[in-house]
Write a structure and sequence with these properties.
single chain; 252 residues; alpha+beta; Arc Repressor Mutant, subunit A; 2 domains; 5-stranded mixed sheet; 10 helices; 5 strands; 44% helix
Length: 252
């Protein structure tokens, strides 16, 4: 979720009395809107788990939105707890823990996992009165980059991540997406000691490692999702990156 997407949530806060009631209404609203992501509140005795689950085919560019979601929901728990707030009692599992600063959760409370969010906390927090959290002012800064702060390599990487499965999406289409002639894109990337092929390899390697470590997805399926014509081509590329086949890497 990006900050601009919080607007429909604010009325839910105004109509909820407790943290638990807000989360339940949040689940129902998200389900009614039919979004790709799904939310669920699970209570197991003294432990509550708030989950944001994303489809398997979601690209990793949503990790920024997931970090903002962590900040928003942790801020609700913090303000509801008041002076009794203990961040060590909250555990967040999400794909990129480096985007969660220490002033939101200590490093020991942020655990890397699959895309999405899983917040684990004491279930008695669900009974606390719901505070009003204005995401434009109350959420601690998460260190997410503003568009103007993303350099050309970052923009190209984002485009490649979004179209990584499309083998026909080459340098011409990438150049058009960033609004540059192909020769100009190549020249600017060369000045940054990079090129489109190298950035595509980086994106494929990172996505491959993520899928192999966070899912039981078939090797052939991962290969297709990363734009390879065959599992053998993917295996050859993965061995050149890591010295291991995908199967060996997953088993290790």
């Amino acid at each position: 979720m990006a900050l601009g997407g919080w607007a429909p949530i604010l009325p839910l806060q105004n109509g909820s009395n407790t943290v638990g009631e807000f989360l339940q209404r949040f689940c129902a609203t998200a389900e009614d809107q039919g979004g790709a992501a799904s939310y669920r509140l699970e209570v197991e005795g003294k432990i509550a788990i708030w989950r944001l689950k994303r489809p398997r085919d979601t690209t990793s560019d949503v990790r920024h939105a997931d970090a903002t979601a962590v900040a928003f929901f942790v801020e609700i728990l913090r303000q509801a707890s008041g002076d009794a707030w203990d961040p060590s009692g909250v555990v967040a599992v999400t794909s990129d823990t480096t985007l969660i600063p220490d002033d939101i959760l200590p490093p020991t409370s942020a655990i890397p996992g699959a895309l999405g969010v899983s917040l684990r906390f004491q279930s008695d927090l669900l009974l606390l009165p719901l505070p009003t959290v204005d995401p434009l002012s109350d959420i601690p800064p998460t260190g997410l980059p503003q568009p103007r702060q993303i350099d050309l390599r970052g923009r190209v990487r984002q485009i490649i991540e979004q179209r990584v499965a499309d083998r026909d999406f080459g340098i011409d289409q990438i150049a058009a997406s960033v609004g540059l002639p192909k020769w100009r894109l190549q020249s600017l990337l060369r000045q940054q000691a990079s090129n489109v092929a190298r950035l595509r390899d980086q994106v494929r390697r990172e996505l491959a490692v993520e899928r192999l470590t966070t899912s039981a997805e078939a090797i052939a399926s991962i290969a297709a999702a990363l734009g390879y014509t065959s599992a053998s081509n993917f295996t050859r590329a993965f061995r050149s990156w890591t010295g291991k086949t995908p199967k060996e890497f997953r088993n290790s």
